[in-house]
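Before relying on records like the one below, remember that each one covers exactly one chain. Contacts with other chains, cofactors or solvent are not represented anywhere in the record.
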Amino acid sequence: MDLVFQLRSACSADFGFAWSLYRGLMKSLTVELLGRWNEPGQKRVVELALTQEGTSIIVIDGSDVGWLQVGESSDAIYLGQLYLAPELQNRGIGTAIVTELRDKARQAGKALTLDVMKNNRARFFYERLGFQVIGQSEHKLKMRWQDNNYEVT
């Protein structure tokens, strides 16, 4: 069964939902990787994300089930955030969202890039969708999907 999703623009009123989902998915990963969790700093990340153009709430059957943040530059589309309620993971929703972004990147002749924490199993999801690690920092991997028919010059 395919779950049909819609995206709606996020706003500051979505903070409670977005924060709860972000905290639930990221706190244990962050503590595992960094040894700490900066609650005020992490709240600020979510507050700022909700004010950015390109941040959307993922809606299925009238219910908010996740959120994402997408930015665009002259040569790339950047997936800054993608969070989906755990009970809806592994049901094709994330794949459908990333596939739409890949199609948009392909049509625009751009790369699709993201950063993922080194200990986040989402890395394997992105690799399965054709992303490759192109760099890393102390805590994150930089990944890129590039249409094989398009070369960055």
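The mean pLDDT is 93.
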